[in-house]
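Worked problem 6 (solution included).
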Amino acid sequence: MLLVRTGGIFGVIVSLIVAGIFLFVVRPAINDTTDRAFDTADRIIDTTDQQIDDTQRQVREATGDLGIDGDYLAAANFAAAVGDIKAELGDDAAAKLTAAVEQKAGAGFDIQSMTLGMTPVTGEIKWTVTGEGDGRQQVFQAAADASGLKKIS
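Solution. The predicted structure is:
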């Protein structure tokens, strides 16, 4: 350290070595890491775009008979789809289902979610109702018109 502080040729040589290490070792490593990070980000963006396109294609195929044009998540399209579903099920299906579940589950049952979905194997539209009662999570399933309520778990 004493020689570096005093200057001279030894100090200049040490400074050049440090600069060379940074220039030829550290900087290329930083550039390589940065390039790999950008390549990974580009791949993620491409994959996400492909997944969005696939999802929108699947939604278009699934909602083809609903007459939805453009973005299926637009407020007008979403409201039209909900209106079509309500017209098909009846306005009181959810109320009938709620009453049937409360009757079957007993007093104190707290409904947490009611989901209308399609079973993957049969393609039937069914309600799935989850909730908590007596300290236990319970799941019920019923037909789209709220008939045939069964406790699943």
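Discussion: The first helix runs from residue 2 to 6.
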